[in-house]
Amino acid sequence: MKSTACAVLAVVALYLVGDVSSECPQAWFDCGNGRCVAMFWRCDGQNDCGNHKDETGCSATQSRCPADKFACHDSSYCVPQIWVCDGEADCHDSSDEQDCHSSNCTGYRCHNNECIPAPWRCDHTEDCIDASDELDCGGAKNSSTTTVAPRCDVDQGRFPCLDGQCLLPSKVCDGRKDCSDGADEGSFCKVNECSQKKCSQGCFVATNGSTCYCNAGFRLMADHVSCADIDECVEDPHVCSHGCINSPGSYSCHCLEGYQLADKSFCKARDPEPLLVFSTTKEIRGLWLRSNRYFEIHPAEAQAVGVEFDSDQHRVFWTDVSTRKSSIHSCRLDGSDFKTLFSAEKTLLEDLSLDWVTNNLYITDSLVKRILVCATDGVSCSALITDSVDAPRAIIVNPPQKVIYWTDWGSRPAIMHASMDGTNIQQLVSTDLGWPNGLTLDHTTNRLYWCDAKLSRLEYLELATLKRDVVMNEDVFHPFALAVFEDTVYWSDWASYSLDSSNKRTGKQHHRVLRENGHHIMGVHVYHPVLRQRGIQNPCWDNPCDHICVLSGDSYMCLCRLGYKLAANKHSCAVTKDFSFVIVAEEDLLYKIDLNRVGAPVPVTLPVSNLGMISALAFDWSNQTLHYSDNRHSILSAINVNSFEQWTVHNHIGSVFGIDFDVTHQLLYWVDADKYTLEACHANGSGHAIIRDDLRRPVGVALYPFAGILFVLSAGEKPTITSYTMDGQNPRVLPLSTLLLPVSISVDLVARTLVWADAVRGTIESLDLQKVFTGTPFIVQQVKAHISSVCAAHNEIHWTSRDQASLEYIDRSIEPSVHRHVSLRSTRNGTFSRRVIVAAQAPPFAPGPCGQNNGGCSHTCLPVRTTDRSCFCPPGMALNADNTTCRVENGTCRPHELPCAGSCIAATDWCDGHQDCSDNADEVSCGSATCPSTDLTCSNGRCIEKSWQCDGYNDCGDSSDERNCTLPTCASHQYTCGSGVCVPLYWRCDGSEDCPDGDDELNCRGVRCPSGHNSCANGQCIPQDWTCDGHADFMPDLAH
């Protein structure tokens, strides 16, 4: 890695003062050829000077060269084979340019062995590096008797000598032989008929008699007497850099604002000095184009591609791609203040261009086939164009015209353009294209330039007339990116590992600006203030939009981040229903995380309150509702994730660690470990049904509605996963022998796999849903932490752990071996808080038998397989003979139940502040309510089960059930809470509050464990047989 610290001041100073002298400052190395390079590039094995001076006197390190490289004879260097016999000495000893005369050259071979197109020979432009193409062309330069003309034309008053010289008329027939062969003083001099010719401008005696000629800037007419003005502006459109004005016999060039004439035709940009920024596969580099000072800006993270410079922030932006993800990075010009705007998986961000008016970046994503627009802070990104895009590569914006252009080299290659708000998409060029790669705009001529890697050429399009022309197709191999500044086009060429330049109009004056041995030069960008028109009104200056503001005609348009849609007021943004996200619960906090956004996933805390200890989550996608179990408050509740409205679905649950939601039938399922039950109710809490009451410590449930089945995960001495039809019938235990402490289960409806997590084994495992009874479990992930939950959806698996404040996940569809991580930035004091997750993604639609008219059931309809259904009745009611309607069982209610409008409800639902009876009888006259003999009447009139009295929990709500209690005696393997509740001893000091008052986590240092238990360093007690069992059971103390 090359550091830039020493060169920082020099770089910044150059930018501020513009042109500087050719002497290199102290922090730079003088190459002796006019180029200055950073001193730390000396002896780094790279020919940064171009003439090897920075590598001269260095010890050779290269002993063998790969097959695609040429070994220099002095064994100091390996150079690409394409550099051999190309006219430039790349080896220290010039051995790559020896014995080259036998090489094929279809044009003209320069004296240095360089090969150039034949028409460039003797065209009065030095195209060979050694200028040998302009030697021996005829005409003696700098002679007092001759002058060099484009051609020796008699009509222009030139006399051609046989030896190739051209003489002025005054030198012909003057009695002095100016031609070496004396041809200018022949016998024809004796006849002079100029006085009879009546020439309009000039006449001289030539070998074929007296001849009229015209002065420079005029042309002899068909009568061979008259002269007419030549309109140089029309004859040669390239005669001036910018504008051309014709005049009799001459012309004049004029420059646009910010430029000045450097000679008769060339417009040069005024100060400051122009900066060329480019990327290689390994780093971002810069080159000052006037002083020729060359420096590193920042290393690439993986492979840098597109590059851009923002003068307002003095920052360089670039895209960085790998097989796993794409990123947008930025830093200051001196390499400091490096930032990652965002990283996005499943993308290929190839190029970017800055709208300097609104400060937005326009970005091509060739993998997802879209064009993005993002704020330069990386917070907000919107998919600007998703239609008419196949494989977008390069992009350029034109804010003055409110237009963007991009290349597309998909199945139908094209040059495209659209308005900057993503509307008015049109094709500009769609024929004779191969791989249109780089793209740039020449603001001075209103031409759009591109390079084609398949056709190996540079082209441009006149945007005003749509006239198309090839600039260069010789000595171009695999061009990748290009930029235009003044009269020069710069481009990177993968085949030659070089950055090249030529005249932007003619393709001549071709030069290799620099070469990178073994590293492709990628993106190319030139910055100068004159390229960015100032004074353009910015309608987005006062941030009128929620997310992103873009130019649109004479005004602006608001866009929303991915996953949001624009509201009716055209300024606000709201979440869309097809927006997928993950929700993580941590005690009484809920985080919402978008894993598919363009940018780094950021946990957003949902603004909800009155949460206790969340232990399980499920999501109703159709209503954007999050269902959760709160074991601290003993309720099942729901939250709308858009409006954040909260409501209670079901009361008086026991320990619920598993819930799932059937979107098709709007049914909530849960398992209760205290009651040994599988239960269900409608989304609004009605139609409560106990499906099974014989489960053994159930801790998870997962639905597979496509097949009409569900899976229950049971812990205990013999953990099991059991499948049932969704009405709780037809139990079948999966033949799994490796379960130790399963804690969570999930079904991926897209991948059609069953996934579960085992906290003791530290594994996440899966089974094909078509082979749950015959297949072998596959270990998807081995996890070192103490897993607390897992969720599978859309080929992604997400999990959380008790001892890590993060969300972990993998994507099995692209890179199953790559483990990703999102920090939750936890603020909880309980270091090992339980976290549970749900992937809130739209499930595939699955019509079911209960979808219409509740399946004909009077109370609760549960699907059976995919076409059948079973009707269930609430507790205290029985199914009639029609198997659809319910009646009060035996005319009376069961213990712990009270009559309610012809049915029965649990006594605990009486006077609980929530209407359960259709006539509201359960909430009327609560102070005088009469509870069943089997229940306890609280002081506030509420009825609770007698077994709840003196259990350490405030079930009445007024604590009357916990008064005058005698504390029980806990067993030796149990811990006695301050309220009298007994909990397992190993829950003591495990980082999770299990006692009602949380006192099991107090004073954990110095705890003495009873016999049969070992003491961990953090005070936790664990059974002795957990020691040296291959599993880390103690929770590390993260507080120190």
UniProtKB/TrEMBL annotation:
LDL-receptor class B repeats: 314-358, 402-445, 446-488, 666-707
GO molecular function: calcium ion binding; hormone binding
UniProt keyword list: Cell membrane, Disulfide bond, EGF-like domain, Endocytosis, Glycoprotein, Lipoprotein, Membrane, Receptor, Repeat, Signal, Transmembrane, Transmembrane helix
EGF-like domain sequence ranges: 229-268
CDD domains named in the record: LDLa
One cellular component term from this protein's GO annotations in UniProt: receptor complex
Main localization (coarse): membrane
Domain of life: Eukaryota
The species this protein was found in: Rhipicephalus appendiculatus (Brown ear tick)
InterPro entries, alphabetized: 6-blade_b-propeller_TolB-like, EGF, EGF-like_Ca-bd_dom, EGF-type_Asp/Asn_hydroxyl_site, EGF_Ca-bd_CS, LDL_receptor-like_sf, LDLR-related, LDLR_class-A_CS
Membrane topology note: Single-pass type I membrane protein
Keyword GTP-binding recorded: no
Subcellular location: Cell membrane
Record keyword Cell membrane present: yes
Higher taxonomy: Eukaryota, Metazoa, Ecdysozoa, Arthropoda, Chelicerata
Signal sequence interval, chain numbering: 1-22
Disulfide bonds: 24-36, 31-49, 43-58, 85-100, 110-128, 122-137, 161-179, 911-926, 931-943, 938-956, 950-965, 970-982, 977-995, 989-1004
UniProt-recorded name of the protein: Low density lipoprotein-related protein 2
Pfam families: EGF_CA (PF07645), FXa_inhibition (PF14670), Ldl_recept_a (PF00057), Ldl_recept_b (PF00058)
GO BP field: receptor-mediated endocytosis
